[in-house]
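ARCHIVE CARD
CATEGORY: sequence design from structure
SOURCE FIELD: tokenized fold
FIELD CONTENT:
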């Protein structure tokens, strides 16, 4: 699994895929869909598909694939290796959704929640398999939202394919278990080797599971909260956990709008407005010796001006 395309720029979504086995282009195939990392406030969410000929279902079962959540990291890595070695009849594809992609999607002006993003990602991966020539006849999906509605949605989108959507599908259907393992292995590797675009020095990698209720995760979020610029792109800033910390620990920002001048509103509430961070120093060019310009400005070679 070559993660270098995503590691080169982890701000965006990225698709990775194995080669398509020749047999999958000539025989009826089944395909499973599952995800890893839906709940964490840190790191990406990874959607995975795995497919093989219907005639090879028993061989896939013999690999003893299981729901990735019931396996240790070492067991998942071992099973992924077995799936990769079965490339003569097993194929897979992944969509890595960066934290930045997730948050900007959820916070855009037009409502686009995590369920809609998940559905669209799954549909995109199934369509990728079809476009690649995989002869799909059966699709099995771990549900997101009501199973019956999701099943109807996929059945209408892919007529002629038998679609089965079930809760806990990763524990019911080996092909979904295989997709679960591919997705989880990819996410574990990405999180462990995350390339921080921000200059954070020697980053503390003890950030725990990434789930909001993990004490290690909470400690890490407090440690790396910049009071003005918020969090590095490793954090899903649309999550309520991150938003709550920013509201309570970061600098209050007042934006100018049509109703009231932002500077005056900020002064009245004894807060600084966003504009004040970009204005020239009241002391002219003599900055406080202890003041260190934020990397946002130095990276872009921005300087304060006395006048426009």
């Amino acid at each position: 699994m070559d993660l270098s395309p995503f590691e080169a720029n982890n701000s965006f979504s990225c698709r990775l895929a194995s080669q398509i086995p020749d047999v999958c282009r000539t025989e009826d195939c089944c395909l499973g869909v599952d995800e890893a990392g839906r709940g964490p406030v840190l790191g990406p969410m990874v959607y995975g598909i795995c497919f093989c000929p219907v005639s090879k279902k028993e061989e896939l079962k013999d690999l003893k694939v299981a729901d990735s959540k019931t396996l240790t990291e070492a067991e998942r890595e071992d099973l992924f290796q077995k799936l990769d070695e079965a490339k003569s009849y097993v194929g897979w594809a992944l969509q890595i959704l960066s934290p930045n992609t997730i948050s900007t999607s959820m916070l855009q002006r037009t409502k686009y929640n995590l369920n809609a993003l998940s559905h669209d990602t799954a549909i995109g991966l199934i369509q990728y398999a079809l476009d690649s020539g995989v002869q799909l006849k059966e699709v099995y999906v771990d549900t997101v939202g009501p199973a019956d509605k999701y099943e109807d949605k996929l059945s209408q989108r892919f007529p002629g394919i038998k679609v089965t959507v079930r809760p806990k599908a990763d524990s019911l259907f080996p092909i979904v278990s295989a997709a679960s393992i591919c997705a989880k292995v990819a996410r574990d590797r990405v999180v462990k080797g995350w390339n921080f675009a921000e200059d954070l020095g020697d980053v503390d990698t003890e950030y725990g599971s990434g789930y909001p209720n993990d004490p290690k995760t909470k400690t890490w979020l407090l440690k790396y909260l910049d009071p003005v610029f918020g969090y590095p792109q490793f954090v899903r800033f649309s999550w309520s956990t991150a938003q709550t910390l920013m509201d309570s620990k970061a600098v209050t920002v007042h934006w100018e709008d049509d109703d009231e001048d932002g500077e005056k509103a900020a002064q009245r509430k004894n807060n600084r407005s966003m504009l004040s961070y970009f204005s020239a120093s009241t002391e002219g060019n003599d900055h406080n010796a202890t003041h260190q310009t934020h990397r946002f400005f130095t990276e872009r070679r921005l300087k304060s001006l006395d006048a426009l």
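CARD ANNOTATION: The beta strands are 14-17, 29-36, 45-53, 91-97, 136-142, 162-166. Residues 70 and 171 are 9 Å apart (CA to CA).
SHELF: design records, drawer C
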